[in-house]
Write a structure and sequence with these properties.
The complex is a heterodimer of chains A (about 120) and B (about 110). Chain A is mainly beta and about 120 residues long. Helices cover about 0% and strands about 50% of the residues of chain A. In chain A, strand 5 and strand 6 form a beta hairpin. By secondary structure, chain B is mainly β. In chain B, the strands form two sheets. In chain B, strands 2, 4, 5, 9, 10 and 11 form a six-stranded mixed β-sheet that branches. Chain B starts with a strand and ends with a strand. Classes of the chains: A mainly beta (about 120), B mainly beta (about 110).
Chain lengths: ~120, ~110
């Protein structure tokens, strides 16, 4: 299994500001995922963060709005830039148990609950 | 059409009841299938993977029908602690990129 921590656990921010969310894993993993879960909705993949290369963003998400860093195999950050109330959401990072193959369990961090005023 | 579709519920059932959830997926090339459980204000956690031949884990049975592109989850003898949102997750490739796609979730409330 993997133990994942996220910081901050929650924050309330003013519109127009930026927030950086940290994700720390207790083991080295190749792939890390960042998801958004808006109120009452399911998880939407924002991007895949690979160590040593640029993140791969899903349709509807861009690097300028959600820059991601992946400096090593145990850590990643997601920044929510120039926030608006529509960015209010839970942001979760996750890692697959084994990189790449099928039947891989995903482990999730506890999430960061963001409220933008 | 959504890539993974679930009935959002809620399913309100009495303790001891049997309840079944279905999930359909659109990508016939999908490789792996899972049921996750998410409690209120918590992160999702794996309930069980779904294998082609179907599989059982205690009171939970998962089935996969590739021809019809649906997955099911059966919960027998429901407990109050089973109350949660159940997420259907499909792993496969879209345009060459592998990723997990989450359904919207089905809410279950088990009533005393």
């Amino acid at each position: 299994s993997a133990v994942i921590s996220q910081k901050p656990s929650r924050d309330i921010c003013q519109r127009g500001t930026s927030l950086t969310i940290q994700c720390q894993v207790d083991s080295q993993v190749t792939m890390m995922f960042w998801y958004r879960q808006q109120p009452g909705q399911s998880l939407t993949l924002i991007a895949t963060a690979n160590q040593g290369s640029e993140a791969t963003y899903e349709s509807g998400f861009v690097i300028d709005k959600f820059p991601i860093s992946r400096p090593n195999l145990t850590f990643s950050t997601l920044t929510v830039s120039n926030m608006s109330p529509e960015d209010s959401s839970i942001y979760l990072c996750s890692v697959p148990l084994l990189a790449g193959g099928p039947y891989n369990e995903q482990f999730f961090g506890p999430g960061t609950r963001l409220t933008v005023l | 059409r959504k890539e993974v579709e679930q009935d959002p519920g809620p399913f309100n059932v009495p303790e001891g009841a049997t309840v079944a959830f279905n999930c359909t997926y659109s990508n016939s090339a999908s490789q792996s299938f899972f049921w996750y459980r998410q409690d209120c204000r918590k992160e999702p956690k794996l309930l069980m993977s779904v294998y082609s031949s179907g599989n059982e884990d205690g009171r939970f049975t998962a089935q996969l029908n590739r021809a019809s592109q649906y997955i099911s989850l059966l919960i027998r003898d429901s407990k109050l602690s089973d109350s949660a949102t159940y997420l259907c997750v499909v792993y496969g490739t879209t345009s060459g990129t592998y990723k997990y796609i989450f359904g919207t979730g089905t809410r279950l409330k088990v009533l005393a």
